[in-house]
Amino acid sequence: MTRSLRGGVLTALAISSTLIVLAGCGSAESKPKHAAAVSKSTSASASTTSAPSGQTFTLGLQEVYSVLPALVAEDEGFLKKHGIAKLQTVTFTSLPAFATALAKGEVDAGLQTPSLLQTYNATTSGSKLAFVAPGQAFNISWIARKGSGVPVATAANWQSTVRAWRGKKIGVSATGGITELVTNYLLEQVGLKPSDVTITAVAPGAPQLAAMKAGVVDLTVGDSFGTQVAIAAGAGTDVLDTGLGQGPSEWQGILESGYMASRETIEKHSELFADFAAALKEARAFLANAANRSAIEASIVKHTQVSATIAKALYPFVHEFTVPLTTEVYEKTTKALVAAKVLKSPAPTYEEAVYDVEG
Length: 359
Fold this sequence. Notes:
Layout: E1 38-42, H1 44-49, E2 55-61, H2 68-75, H3 78-81, E3 84-92, H4 95-104, E4 109-112, H5 114-123, E5 129-134, E6 141-144, H6 159-163, E7 169-172, H7 178-189, E8 198-201, H8 206-214, E9 219-222, H9 224-232, E10 237-241, E11 258-262, H10 263-268, H11 270-287, H12 293-304, H13 308-314, H14 327-339, H15 350-353
Parallel strand pairs: 2-3, 2-4, 7-8, 7-9
Antiparallel strand pairs: 1-3, 4-11, 5-11, 6-9, 6-10
Helix pairs in contact: 2-11, 2-12, 9-13, 12-13
């Protein structure tokens, strides 16, 4: 299985402009073929233990680990408890195809970012997208290759780490994407300019690891999953990690992503979405309970196929899946993302972006 340092939901902004041509949803010519851009998989638990009757929920994703609460909800029986017999995941390699599938109801829901929702909704003439449940917290990390000379940040002093980036080559998954934008924001916070570093696009996964090991880049930008894979591979050191409370305070306790669907799909299947949201809520509570550590690590190994060692290293970061989608959290999120130029101002309001399926 291919690993990604930042191959999941945060790649959305990098190609959000391509969504504009899709958003009209009025003609077949403007839509890519969905079947050509995705691969379907049903997790082992769903395929072997599902009840013979009941609802199936189809979930779009780009990185398996990013939907850990949904997978835990399946493993622990929360989905079945709420009437969903089977979870089917659909892995997308094309973001425009992902957005189109959501808009057309080809998948029930998908995990994506506020930037995708804003871009799509601003240009569509069809049903708009809306969040139905929270996804991951805003968890980004910068990994430095060995010998780079970049000090490891602390919650009290992350600024010295960023200042040490001057003159360094930083690998991002796509130029113009969120990883470049948040890197630029950190540079500006310590008095540096984007021109004080060299930004290089490096394909996620193995190419990023190879680029660090070869010294082609001094740092890469990743998430908790990709960071632990990189560390296990001996590619570098986690020098700044928002998941450890490092970085600007306004980035703490905000959301990176959420489960979204088209409003038309939600309204047609309101009970299904209410059941899914309720199961996710139980899964988030399960993830927040330290007594469940062994079961959580087992789910990580089962669904991502990483080693038990990497699963243990990931466990301290599962709190990223427990941030709620309240009005306060949403407004704090959009304020921070507008400041970092990840979202355009004005950002969608809570009422525009969120569909309350729990009533």
